[in-house]
Amino acid sequence: MVDWLGLSIAVILQKPVFFPNLLAGIPMPPDQPSLEAKDDAIAFPPPRRVIASPEEAYFLTLQFLPQQRRSQAVLYEARGDRCQLVWQAALPHEYGPRFGLVNDQGHIALVDEWINVRSPRALTILDDTGSTVAQFAYADLRAAVGLSEAEILDRTQAGWWISDVPRLSGDGQRLIVGIGGQSIQANLSTGQLEPSLSAN
């Protein structure tokens, strides 16, 4: 079981964290019910989400900060049986991103915002230092596939526009996400969009 208290302390001290079962599987946060905002109908994100890269070389945590209505991203690199803090930063997304993925080079894709809006941060790609490689608004993604908003909304499964759950390509170098029944690929190193008209 992951020592979440130790993990939190390590974020502050920027020191390695010992995970006895690090290579045995993806560490998951304790089960906690989702919170709900008291002043509106928007359900809060989970208190903490942990996303592992395909070979568990990196771990991305997204921690929701209720008072700020934002999330903090923290990236850890696995080193043997320990995780070393690489970087941490508050994210500008409303409540936080809807999806986050990380590859084995520490490159990150943050997809959509937690609330349903035509987001200016529909897709954000970060490098292994936390610097922004590319950022695309919903309008950019819609233009890339050449669909009307009605066509996109008709196929939406998550958020404002996502028609298929985001995933990494087999080699981990590209993000693949569905929009309007089609798919967009984004290179996680260059940030370049690579539209694909194959149906999801």
Topology:
Layout: H1 4-13, E1 17-18, E2 48-52, E3 58-65, E4 70-79, E5 82-90, E6 97-102, E7 108-113, E8 123-126, E9 132-136, H2 138-145, H3 149-154, E10 162-168, E11 174-179, E12 182-187, E13 193-196
Antiparallel strand pairs: 1-5, 2-3, 3-4, 4-5, 6-7, 7-8, 8-9, 10-11, 11-12, 12-13
Account of the protein in words:
With 200 residues, the chain is mainly beta. It has one domain (4-196). The chain contains three helices and 13 strands, in the order αβββββββββααββββ. It has helices at residues 4-13, 138-145, 149-154; strands at 17-18, 48-52, 58-65, 70-79, 82-90, 97-102, 108-113, 123-126, 132-136, 162-168, 174-179, 182-187, 193-196. A five-stranded antiparallel sheet has the order 1-5-4-3-2. Strands 6-7-8-9 form a four-stranded antiparallel sheet. The protein has a four-stranded antiparallel sheet with strand order 10-11-12-13, covered by helices on one side. The protein is globular. The model is unreliable at 1-40 (pLDDT under 50).
